[in-house]
Design goal:
By secondary structure, this protein is an all-beta fold. The protein is about 0% helix and about 65% strand. The strands form two sheets. Strands 1, 2, 3, 4, 5, 6, 7, 8, 11 and 12 form a ten-stranded antiparallel β-sheet that branches. The model has no long low-confidence stretch (mean pLDDT about 85).
């Protein structure tokens, strides 16, 4: 998937002021505000796989895997009177930038076992796994007004066990 003119939240700084001296002279107005801009293109690539097998009328399994990755190419306008600091990377952009990886886009997996012991009953066991991913955060040690950095978010796994009883065609009860 290619997203053109991806929207990114940026901080704007006076282009004539070096990044190393930003926010050191509070009488100077080098901060130009925060806003959303069309920052460039984002490229997402991956694969989704799904496998299901019905052992009988009573027993079924489903396995799913989604692996995703990508990169962003941020574009800076040549004639802009300011420089950008990207929210998603924390980087000050003086020129076009390439960023590998995607924020908040984990790879996922799911396994489902469904059993129907009787016509009106269904038992389900489902396991979902969400892989590690990067996220942006406020880090005041990185620069003026707290440049943003990226950190890894740990993976996690959820296990659900449920039973469904169908009393009538319009009335069911779920037990989780």
């Amino acid at each position: 998937t290619v997203t053109r003119n991806v929207i990114d939240y940026v901080y704007l700084w006076d282009k004539e002021v070096p990044v190393s001296s930003l926010a050191q002279d509070w009488s100077r107005d080098d901060f130009r505000g925060d806003r959303y801009i069309n920052a460039g293109n984002q490229y997402v690539y991956g694969v989704e796989l799904r496998f299901s097998f019905r052992f009988s009328d009573k027993l079924k399994t489903v396995f799913e895997k989604c692996a995703v990755d990508g990169h962003s190419e941020l574009t800076v306008a040549d004639n802009a009177p300011f420089r950008y600091q990207s929210f998603s990377t924390g980087a000050f952009l003086d020129e076009n930038s390439h960023r590998a990886g995607l924020l908040r886009r984990p790879s996922t997996a799911r396994a489902l076992l469904e059993y129907r012991p009787a016509k009106d009953w269904m038992l389900r066991l489902q396991v979902r796994h969400v892989g590690k991913r990067g996220d942006a955060y406020f880090d005041s040690s990185q620069g003026p007004f707290g440049a943003l950095a990226s950190k890894a978010v740990s993976p996690y796994t959820l296990t659900d066990l449920s039973a469904t009883w169908k009393y009538r065609s319009s009335l069911t009860a779920d037990f989780r």
